[in-house]
Every structure is written in structure tokens, then in C-alpha cells.
Amino acid sequence: MLVELGSQFEALSTELAALQNGTVVTVAPTAAPSEELIDETAIHPSAERIEAILALLDPIERAIMTTPAASVVGLGVKARHAAHVLSHYWIDSANTLDWDVRAVRLLIESTCSVAGVGLLSSQQ
Question: Which residues, including other chains, have CB under 8 Å from residue 112's CB and lie 6 or more apart?
């Protein structure tokens, strides 16, 4: 079950990252989509999809957190999810982190390594 949840989580997370890193088109709410404005309301054409993805991710993430890992692969799914939740742990070099943050980061990285899975692209 965790493997399927992990696949769903990864697919949605990848789509979400692509949408969030995309170019924002700035248009007035009543303007034609080709009309660009400066210092006006920004309407991101994918904002609705981002909200939909976040709504889809919530139950998947909750299930990943509550489902016990029965295999190393399942443990890898849980570790990748933990890395996603704690993505700010990968902003700086491991050597500059507080001791407790570094311990968690290294544990997640080691767990992913043993499980044979890489971290999500935002942590690499």
C-alpha cells in the first residue's frame, strides 16, 4: 500500500513543483488572456490546478504518515515523505545545520539510500 501511495505522492508532487516553478501570467480579471499588466492583480492560469493538487495530496500524505512500513521499500516511501515535509533541512550544507536537524537529515538520507530510492528533486 505504501508503494502505491508513494507513486501517487511523487506524481502529484512533481506536477505541483512544475506548476509552482512555471511562469506567472499577469492579467486583469476582465482582460483578455493576452493583455499583460504591470502592478495589477496576477492571475496564475494554473492556480486552480495547484489547489486541486494540494487537496489531492492531503489524504495521500496522511495515509503515508499513518500506514506502518512493512518493508524497506515502504520505509523508503515514508523517508521520502519526511524529506518533503522537512525540505527546509536541505537548504544549507549538512555541516552547517544544528545537531538535531543534521541527525534527522542524515537519517532520512541513509534510509532512502538503504531503500534504494533517491530524494525528491527539491532535496538534491
Answer: 76, 79, 80, 83, 118, 119
- Beta carbons within 10 angstroms of residue 118's beta carbon: 14
Helix, strand, coil shares of the chain as percentages rounded to 5? Answer: 65, 0, 35
Size (the chain), residues: 124
For residue 79, which of 58, 102, 106 has the smallest C-alpha distance? 106
Residues 6+ apart with CB under 8 A from 96: none
Tens-place pLDDT, residues 76-89: 999 999 999 999 99
Which pTM does this prediction carry? 0.75
Residue 90 to residue 102: CA distance in whole angstroms: 10
Give the number of C-alpha atoms closer than 13 A to the C-alpha of residue 105, restricted to the C-beta side: 19
Angle formed at CA 24 by CA 23 and CA 30, multiple of 5 degrees? 145
